[in-house]
Amino acid sequence: xxxxxPEMPMKAPLTCLIVDDSAFxxxxxxxxxxxxxxxxxxxxxxxxxxxxEYGRLxxxxxxxxxxxxxxxxxxxxxxxxTEDPKARVIMISSVSYQEKVAEAMSAGAKWFIPxxxxxxxxxxAIQSVLSDN
Amino acid sequence: MRLDFVKIFVDxxxxxxxxxxxxxxDVPSISMKPSPVAGREVMAIIGLAGEAQGRVIFDMxxxxxxxxxxxxxxxxxxxxxxxxxxxxxxxxxxxxxxxxSKINDGGTRLRMSPPTVITGxxxxxxxxxxxxxxxPIATAYGEVRVNITIQDLD
Lengths: 133, 154
Prior knowledge:
In chain A, 44% of the residues lie in helices and 19% in strands. Chain A is built from 5 helices and 5 strands. In chain A, strands 2-1-3-4-5 form a 5-stranded parallel beta sheet, with helices on both faces. The model of chain A has no long low-confidence stretch (mean pLDDT 91). The A-B interface holds A 21-25, 27-28, 31, 67-69, 93-100, 114-116 and B 16, 19-20, 69, 72-74, 82-83, 86-87, 89-90, 93-98, 100-105, 111-114.
């Protein structure tokens, strides 16, 4: 008689929503996230899509651009964080002047990385944001 | 023409290109023209608005665009695919975004539009009435011309 193997404790995957109107940035960030261990990444190409996907997926982390056509990043973060104050959003933008960074943080973002982002910067930001909660 | 801003745009673009495309990036000369000099096969256009207004046009040959994008993507591209277009748009966006950030931190409110990429033969820009500063940026994959028009609001 075969004995059932004891179940190995599985670490839950980190879920991530990548929000950027640029297909290049979504490709680039997804590749970075894929290089980390045990990550499931989803994508949204604009603010409205991001809000819809956030509600559906409730990801652990959101990577959010600022300059997007239609609903831009800061307003999108505000709406996501109103809906879920525990949302962990990392802004990744080429527009990184002090006032815009402050606006993003007061909208609810937990971290800001200026573009171009490196894998190491992204890893550090994710670790920091996850350890804060 | 806000030459102080123009310098920030050119410097930020050169720094960004060096970071993303490699160290062999040079800006050999900068010249003032009565209108944009942009007629190559690929153009990335970004509008500027706020306390000043204007436009930045990056133009380059198709070969250069495909090679630059291939470098950014870390893999060669077969031609002008949607991902190549997006890479060129993002390259322009990051360069101008960096400049915009410095200008805003200096006290002038300026914002940028998302980039538009246009491709085709014999492209012509019809901003004929605006003085334009043209900075050719030499890269390992060919030249990218940066056409900058920026003026204070009257």
